[in-house]
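#structure-requests
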Amino acid sequence: MARRYRVVETPQDEARDLAFCHVCMVAKRDEKLKTNTLEKKTYILTGFSNWKDAGRCFRQHEMSDCHPEAIEKVVTLPKVTKDVGEMLSKANMKKKEDNRECLLTILSSIRFLAQQGIALMG
């Protein structure tokens, strides 16, 4: 699992020495987490401050329902899936190239027939 904990930029959180899970916060901000997975809001909303037992608490958070879902939706899925608009654009571009090639072949045939003085039909 990727460990992405950081102290938030706001001065009051830094002064209080709080840590948040960056991936979970991004997933919550983008509304990618299910509401029932927010059982442990410590790493998202209130901030983590139990530094004596931090290692165990971080591992426990990484095994919770919230963190793996956030990793999947924020980190893994964007790498695996492609943008639909980009895919459609590429398909449209490929179709245009194929059509252009067919048109050039037809025009080449018409030019040849015209040079030979042969009718297109009949």
